[in-house]
Amino acid sequence: MRRYVGSHYGRMFSDRKWIIPFFASLLVSVSLILTAILGAYNSSGGVGEQLPLDVVLLNRSEDSSGYFVESELERPLNAGVMKTKAPRFAYLISGTKGDSHRMMRTLEAVYHPRNQYILHLDLEAPPRERLELANAVKADPIFHKVENVRVMSQSNLVTYKGPTMIACTLQAIAILLKESTEWDWFINLSASDYPLVTQDDLLHVFSNLSRDLNFIEILPIVGWKLNQRARPIIIDPALYLSKKSDLAWTTQRRSIPTSFKLFTGSAWVALTRPFVEYCIWGWDNFPRTLLMYYTNFVSSPEGYFHTVICNTKEFSHTAISHDLHYIAWDTPPKQHPRSLTMNDFDKMVKSNAPFARKFAKDDPVLDRIDKELLGRTHRFSPGAWCAGTSDGGADPCSLHGNDTVFSPGRGAERLHELFQLLLSEEHRNNKCL
């Protein structure tokens, strides 16, 4: 044993290759320590001198969490969210076969140069209709000048109750983020949706809101919905086939997850850019995990964003449980919205909601909304950005003016009443609990 130790001790000191790297690292360490000490001394004694940028970054925190993108999620969401700059919206307007004209009508009713718009006409529409929609957008002089309206070149099959609607929505969000990050809220509409206020009304009221508020109806998934939506396993044929068909139901049933809590609500949302960025990038992989879970979920558009936001600490407190829509449901069992008509006009107005659905194609109530609520006499809903005149029947919006100035009307007053209610202490309890 003594002989073994002695020989090992001798080998350690006979191999001197480690000496040069050791002293080199020691010299570097001493130099860094002296530099730090002298730098701190000079910063405290010097007048009017600024630290180099890298030193400032090193002194920002005592740990390394600030150097990774995940640390962005740890910042308070209300830090800097009250901006003086007017907000912008990013709209997705979707439709299917025969909806191109309805989509254009909805687009023109919600159009404002500050916003971003993307149109998706699904694969069930014939190629000719999709081409006509793309050409109509391309040929429009206002759209061409402002360059804020796009038509998705890749058309997807979309099944409303299946995950393909979520996939299409996320793809549209990714395109909007790629094209421009200068927007604050994402809003999804369909061809059967229609606004009840002008964009000047909406932008004016949202100018006074914190930019961290997500408008998404939040409901616990209990009772029959738990058994008929969460437990079955479905397959959406639109993920695999080129022709739309009903969902395929498997015989297997699954248990309720224990690592996250399920929520449901309306498929129509107004979500903040930081939240949808999180859904796209998924820094902690949670949004992608839920996306895989909801691939085989019944009515996944009514659960995906809701479950993501309520199970994410950084965003759960930002959810305002309202979808900003007036919807009249069938009774019972309140599973499908019925088409709105003239008989619903007063109820729509009294709801103070900025949007309503669903409307039949060219229903007369749309003309009444244009006349009495939007003031549309030409293509676009009027706003302060319309710098032209109406002399001789000309369209005042054919001339693009200052889009940072708004001219709110009675619609803004109704919206203000709605948000006073939604942001009150009585209403704004955490629906995610």
From TrEMBL:
Give the highest taxon in the source lineage.
Eukaryota
Cellular compartment(s)? Membrane
Indicate what this protein is called per its UniProt record: Uncharacterized protein
A Gene Ontology CC term for this entry? membrane
- Chief location of this protein? membrane
Q: Which UniProt keywords apply?
A: Glycoprotein, Glycosyltransferase, Membrane, Transferase, Transmembrane, Transmembrane helix
Residue stretches spanning the membrane:
20-41
Q: Return the Pfam families for the record.
A: Branch
The protein's topology relative to the membrane is: Single-pass type II membrane protein
| Any one Gene Ontology molecular-function term assigned to this protein's record | glucuronosyltransferase activity
InterPro entries for the chain: GLCAT14A/B/C, Glyco_trans_14
